[in-house]
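Q: I'm writing up a methods section and want to include an example of the input and output format. Could you take the sequence below and give the corresponding predicted structure tokens, formatted cleanly so I can copy it straight into the document?
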Amino acid sequence: MKRRVAITGLGLVSSHGQDPAAAFRAWMNGVSGIHWQSVGDEPHAVRIPSAVCDSFDPVQVLGKSRLTTMDRFSQLGSAAAQSAWQDAGLADLTATDREQVAVLWGTGGGGVQTTERSYRDLFVRGRSRISPLSVVLGMNNAAASHIALQLGAGGACLTYSVACASSAVAVGEAMRRVQMGDCAVALAGGAEAAMPYGTVKAWESLQVLAMPGEQPVEAACRPFHAERRGLVLGEGAAALVLEEWEHAKRRGATIYAELVGYASTCDHSHMTAPNSQGQLRALNLVLQEAQANVEDVSYVNAHGTATAEGDPTEVQALQALLGDHAARTMISSTKSMHGHLLGAAGAIEALITALAVYQDAAPPTAHLDLIDPACAGLDHVATVGREHVGMKLALSNSFAFGGSNAVLAMRPA
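A: Here is the clean output for your methods example:
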């Protein structure tokens, strides 16, 4: 028999700060964390809209000595994980119980800042040696390992790298472990700091990065908008503590939401072009596990990257799922405010969805004053959020390059 799964802790490092409740208020008001960022050295530097964690002080949060062994993505992830653990009230968990705690983490690029720095030393500066810490800083599982070390977590410590679905998959797979009784507590989430010069230039070459045009830079990312221009890169981390329901209830934990469904599918059709049928299969599967009808779906936190092809494809999949209920289903893409965190996107959007369920509120797609007809047909929460929405079931979509789809479903506790 599957065990019920409660979300009892939330941790965040983002362009909107490190307090999930305060960040959610900003998101509800349509406040953007996007601004101009210069990446690289002159004369080849590139200036792009981005959402970075300017207020994050790793020395204050983690201590100076620890930072020498951590790439920025590990720093962001460790800080978010510590906050989630504290928020869950698990500081007094015994060493014996911690031996069973699992850490499941997601990232797309891992320690790409370390990798680029090492390549610069070798190929630009002509050095014959690089830092002996390069491997342990740059490996994709570094953040998860640091988190397990800090928490004394002795259960499974796994990292998922599934492009933009990485951390949604991590949350879903953590849910499975709690459901099946492998552990009573799991910490799941993701971190990304994939904005060194080489990575940004690679995204620039794909011609999917947004420039604001006549709009202010804060409005550079406009999912579902008739005049959308593309995605905006972001960095950050989010962590969720997942807990077996009765374990959480016995200790009187705050339960933000019940995680009732997870599904993953593959489009198996194209490396970069999304496919509505693959997405639809994931959406159908998640409702089956949640034992829910389409009429139960109140809100969808969309993948919504503001690309020309991605947004209408996702809307098409949702319309096929929801049928006549589509017009009554609220939808928004919070990437319009926090940017696209790539491998950490699923985690921050799962955190936002959990808070939406907890507060009975739907955050908006900021700057959405002209909906693309190809994206119409659902109830777009535009510009500012809505309160007292009567939330029954909320979905969080993550659709990645490579055709990997992951959907999470939550309902009020």
